[in-house]
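User: Hi! I'm a student and our assignment asks us to look at how structure tokens line up with a sequence. Could you show me two examples?

Assistant: Happy to help. In each example below, the sequence comes first and the structure tokens follow. Example one:
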Amino acid sequence: SVGDSSDNASSDGITVDVVSPTINSLTSNITKNKWDSTSDNANPYFGWTGDDNVSRIRAFSYVLDQSDSTIPDDVPEGDLNNLSNELNTIYSGLADGIYYFHVKAQDNALNWGATDEYIIKVDTTSPTVPQLYNPIQTTGTGNLTYNWTNSTDISEVNLYQLQVDDDEDFSSPGKNVTTSSTQLTVILSAG
């Protein structure tokens, strides 16, 4: 009938597909958009699936970069005759930084879908070592105040650990404390 709209039309066995495919699952071994030092985040794995109810998925195009606005090119990746081999990829040796994995699907009617993205934050480098301003102190009151330089890291520094001992080899620390500050007053117990 006149005025009806549809996502596809069929006549004499010919189907017209005007619906773009979608990415319905995008996963990684890296926690999404979070600094994650517990995993092998310099070697991320990405896996995905797509969906197109009319003409089915034909191919995918994807890219990993450091821009949040990238759209993968319109060139299918890999072997078009073996789509099951094109549902994941692994990257290795990434430098520290924020990365965006972008993927889009193409259906058999050659429609490209919208881009989906997965953000990872790679941090494989230890923070800088803070420097104590006054590492050796004596006290008559039992209170010691320590100050140190900020430690820096791409993923920020959340905690400092300070050990206080009366032995130079730190064989029996009298105090072992953590703080988020660059200053700490330690109260030593008598004895």
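Example two works the same way, sequence first and then tokens:
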Amino acid sequence: LDWGTIIMQSNILIVYFKELKEVLRDRRTLIFMLVMPTVLVPMLMNILFSFVIKSKHKAATEALTYSIFGSENLPQLAQEFADSNQFKQVEIANEDKITSSIQEDIIKFALVIPEQALEQANYDRQVTVHIYYNNSSATNRVIISRAEDIVQKVSDKIRSERLRLMGLNSSQEQNGLILPIKIENHGTANM
């Protein structure tokens, strides 16, 4: 090393220690450097995460309020919702009030079953049921998932009945028609 490099490194260290001494004198800077990242930020993150977890737990366990229109068009679906203790039906005046009822938190979601649903189901056609919900809510996926589970349960019953009428009585025969190819996974990590 030559003398020029040593003097330059010495000057850099002098400036570094001078700046460090000034920073350590200022109490506000110390607070922002030490207290904020080590105490305040983790505390705020903990509060935020606990709020999110409580909200999701509530959405997953509370009895969800809903309204249904056209229940006579697919009575088995309406009955499945009525029989479930996960849902509580609330009557609202008409379909025009769905959006305002959801926004005012009177109901969490609404189902609209079209008039031709029963006819479509009886003639082996697909039925479209409309679900209205607040898609800007943080817990909307949990709420809709619970409603979709009931719809899927009724759909499975209708499919099983249709397949039974086709002469496919066992679940193995039905699965062979519905899912002709099945994948069976075998992980090798623990072998």
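Here is something you could point out in your write-up. Helices lie at 3-25, 27-61, 75-83, 98-103, 117-122, 140-165, 171-178.
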